[in-house]
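Suppose you are handed a protein chain with no further information: no name, no annotation, nothing but its sequence. What can you learn? This example shows the usual starting point.
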Amino acid sequence: MFPISTTVATRYPAFATWALIALNVLAYIWEMSWFAAGGEPALRQFLNTWGLVPARYFVPGWGEAHGLPPNTLLPFLTNTFLHGGLLHLVFNMWTLYIFGPAVEDRMGHVPYVIFYLLCGIGASFAHAWMNPTSTLPAIGASGAIAGVTGAYMRLFPRSSVVVLVPIFFYPLFFDLPAVAFATIWFVSQLIQGMASLSAHPQAGGVAWWAHIGGFIVGWFAAGIWGREGRRYRPLQADEGVFGCCPDGSRKRGPWG
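A reasonable first move is to predict its three-dimensional structure. Written in structure tokens, the prediction is:
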């Protein structure tokens, strides 16, 4: 289920969302430069240093044995700007591009950035807590973006999300209420997360608990940052006429 678009009108340019996308792209270029310079060993050391390896914090002596700086919590943040490949980066940035602008428009640029970083850190702690002996570096912005998605669903539950569902070779498009999209997505993550608990701790794969933790942080934090919204500029004549009103509903107001 791949999100294509939303129906919430925004009134301000999404400067912070674009800046976060740019930072992720630059971080990926930096990451790949290590691979280009030193191959797999250099990239592995880079990911162990800046990615999130739970064993570094929960298994005594693991970090020192691998030449990692002690007593630093930076990887709980820096891992959220790294990615495991170009497709991983593109998919995450597309999802941020879809849901980020509406959340940023409601919160404001600076609070939105703080909110995004908080979601990423919360996702990292959730992953480390549920996988304490893993020696695999967890990387990716998906936990932070899950928080943005959770905030979108809380702030605009009655809006619509257009999703793509590929059936064999045929793309099917559906118009889902945001609350339905959130429920389906979260339940699927929770099922996969519970299943991962019985897997071998060194098995690779998706950081399901980072998604779950980020979504929960985003859902609750949206009640603080996005409850009242910003003081909007006057609505233009064509805003809210198509799709949903700026509050995410389909009711008619003085704007349309």
